[in-house]
From TrEMBL:
The keyword NAD does not apply. Keywords: Cell membrane, Membrane, Transmembrane, Transmembrane helix. Gene3D superfamilies: MFS general substrate transporter like domains. It is found in: Cell inner membrane. It holds the Pfam family MFS_1. The keyword Amino-acid biosynthesis does not apply. NCBIfam families: fucP. InterPro entries: Lfuc_symporter_FucP (IPR005275), MFS (IPR011701), MFS_trans_sf (IPR036259), MFS_TsgA-like (IPR050375). It comes from Paracoccus fistulariae. The chain crosses the membrane at residues 12-33, 53-73, 80-97, 103-122, 143-166, 197-216, 248-274, 313-331, 337-359, 371-392, 398-417. This is L-fucose:H+ symporter permease. Its main location: membrane.
Length: 433
């Protein structure tokens, strides 16, 4: 039977639904983590740069675990990779309990690294799995659809932070904390860290239910095997082939700067709002929640637009708009600048899955290792927030938004590159969906 017009293959509807739930799950984790930079800087009286090691640990784990995930996927299957990733993430989320008891920043970083390492394996497996679940010609649109449920998770993550963590921070200033006697300070920190721990342990229980559901669901692998060829590992040969594909290599670079921009914008929204218009962390957190709601709606809008407009054209337009909004926020640290930062989320909505889908086009048996490279590019979310945080400490929150503005320009150049490449080497038109 022809696959013409299909969105997913026969027998893949239930597996597709379960994997889409995973997209929402790692969105919860990522956006519960974003406010922790501000939270830990307050609890432990650290600079923004020091607290930014939260993102270094989180996204650094993505870099370290993506390649092992590719070996798992290549040797076994995407389903195995998804289960291994979920298992590691469950362990990392449960580690928040002993971390809260130890009351040490380093233990929390270990828990975050373990959690994110599992999510790295999960994401390295789930993204190409979605691509393999249906015809290649609509793979980018299908991945955008699956990724559209990621902001459902991001909104839940921000809500959990806003409801369970930020309101329970003690209002004492760094100076007032420094003046407290050690026992009083420890009691304040203990209550705050218990608030941090609670949503992560609850998240671990949810992930455990997802793990059981996926384990018990039969997931056809015939299409996966046919697309990827034999399961022998030829890592060196795959890397050499990938390095010769300019669209893929540039896609990894673009993904690095896309994730960097996204992480910087969301991590430091609270600081920007407080500096621009004042208020508490909980009040500023509402603007982050609004930005994630905009991200959610925009993701579905972009999936619809891709039925009429080339993904690379949309990528160029949105990246340019993101750069303009960030520069506006730099020049206008007031209420209008706050709304500019909030609206950046609309431009971010299509970037990750679009870069991912475009970069993996036509990779065939190299898709699994190619997917690992694109997830390793999430390292941008580990490194660039350190730069952003250092500039914020030195020059203020407004000026620091020059960092994501420059990142957006790199992403825009990738969209232009793909458009030019496809104009020079047009492919056979895809069948109508």
């Amino acid at each position: 039977m022809s696959d013409r017009g299909k969105f997913v293959y026969d027998g893949m509807k239930l597996p597709f639904t379960l994997i889409v739930i995973c997209f929402a799950a790692w969105g919860i984790a990522a956006n519960m983590t974003d406010p922790l930079v501000k939270v830990f800087s307050k609890i432990f009286s650290m600079s923004t740069l020091q607290a930014s090691f939260v993102q270094f640990a989180y996204y650094g784990a993505y870099f370290c675990l993506a390649l092992p995930a590719a070996f798992i996927n290549r040797r076994y299957s995407y389903k195995t990779g998804v289960l291994v990733g979920l298992g590691c993430a469950i362990a990392g989320a449960f580690l928040f309990y002993p971390a809260a008891q130890s009351m040490t920043f380093g233990f929390f970083l270990l828990a975050l690294f373990t959690l994110a390492g599992g999510l790295s394996i999960l994401e390295t497996s789930a993204n190409p799995f979605v691509i393999a679940m249906g015809p290649e010609y609509n793979a980018t649109r299908r991945l955008n659809f699956a990724q559209a449920f990621n902001p459902v998770g991001t909104n839940i993550g921000v809500f959990l932070s806003a409801a369970l963590i930020l309101p329970r921070l003690n209002p004492a200033t760094p100076e007032e904390r420094a003046a407290m006697d050690p026992e009083a300070l420890r009691a304040v920190q203990s209550a705050e860290l218990q608030a941090v721990m609670t949503p992560y342990v609850g998240f671990a229980c949810v992930l455990l239910l997802i793990w059981v559901a996926i384990y018990m669901t039969k997931m056809p692998t015939e299409r996966e095997a046919a697309a990827d060829g034999p399961r022998e590992l030829h890592f060196g040969a795959s890397v050499r082939r990938l390095m010769k594909r300019r669209r893929y290599v540039f896609g990894v670079i673009a993904q690095f700067f896309n994730v960097a921009a996204q992480t910087c914008v969301w991590t430091f929204t609270i600081q920007y709002v407080i500096e621009a218009i004042g208020g508490t962390e909980a009040e500023a957190g509402r603007y982050l929640q609004i930005s994630l709601l905009i991200f959610l709606v925009s993701r579905f809008v972009m999936v619809w637009l891709m039925g009429y407009i080339r993904p690379s054209v949309l990528l160029c337009i949105m990246a340019l708009m993101g750069a303009v909004l960030c520069l506006f926020a730099v020049a206008n640290p007031n209420m209008s600048g706050v709304w500019a930062v909030v609206l950046v989320s609309a431009t971010l909505s299509l970037m990750f899955p679009t870069i991912y889908g475009v970069a993996l086009e036509g990779l065939g048996e190299d898709t699994k290792f190619g997917a690992a490279g694109l997830v390793m590019a999430i390292l941008g979310g580990a490194l660039m927030p350190l730069v952003h945080g250092a500039i914020m400490d030195a020059r203020g929150a407004a000026v620091s938004y020059i960092v994501p503005a420059l990142c957006f320009l790199v992403v825009m150049s990738y969209g232009l590159f793909d458009l030019i490449a496809k104009r020079r080497h047009p492919r056979v038109a895809a069948p109508a969906e």
